[in-house]
Amino acid sequence: MDLWLADPAFFGGAGQGSRQIAELFVAFGLTALIGLEREVQGKAAGLRTQTIVGTAAALILLVSKYGFSDVLSTGLVEVDPSRVAAQIVSGIGFLGAGIIIVRRGSVHGLTTAAAVWESAAIGMAAGAGLFLLACTVTAMHFLIVLGFMPVVRRLTARLGGSIRMHVTYADGRGVMHELLQACERRQWQLTDLAADAPQGPPGGAGQCGVMLTLSGSGILAAPTVLAGIDGVTAVHQFDTDAE
């Protein structure tokens, strides 16, 4: 062990120089920005997950590029650096699949899973020394998650669209009939409906819940309109892009 530590190449061999350290820190910094945005949004894969994924992807790529230099021999032992890197893409798919869940018939976690995959790609780009590409994709991430939603909301408000909500209301007061009438008056089409099991004691004034998917013009006003109906106790809107 002492002989290894005395070897100047132990810490400064191929693939262990200042450039590789810089590549790891670039991957660390860029994916930390993405993770911070996800953390602020309250998503499952936040700052720690995104940063670990991006930095680990950069390290794996560096290992793929430089980790076998001591066993390479021209004409005898040759490796393809892209083979190890290609496994990152497959491996991240399993992590992303664990983030995606289905609840009450609605898919959640797609955007967050895509962000994890994106962090891995940014880390790979940084590990390959493609700093400009890594920074460009990071900037594109913020353009997508912060810039696209206001545009979508404006278009939905003007041209129509769809919205998915979970409405909780008092049982036994005809609230569901009022909900359907309010949608009919505004010409909102009910494309999906799934009722929860009633809550509360038998014969008592319990709470009911229903998942609604509505479409039509001015649909963004639907949560406010439905929440104003007497007997409605809560309205929860789900993101249309399944974040």
Automatic annotation (TrEMBL):
It is found in: Cell membrane. Its main location: membrane. Keywords: Cell membrane, Membrane, Transmembrane, Transmembrane helix. The chain crosses the membrane at residues 20-36, 45-64, 84-102. Residues 24-151 form the MgtC/SapB/SrpB/YhiD N-terminal domain. Belongs to the MgtC/SapB family. This is Mg2+ transporter-C (MgtC) family protein. It comes from Mycobacterium dioxanotrophicus.
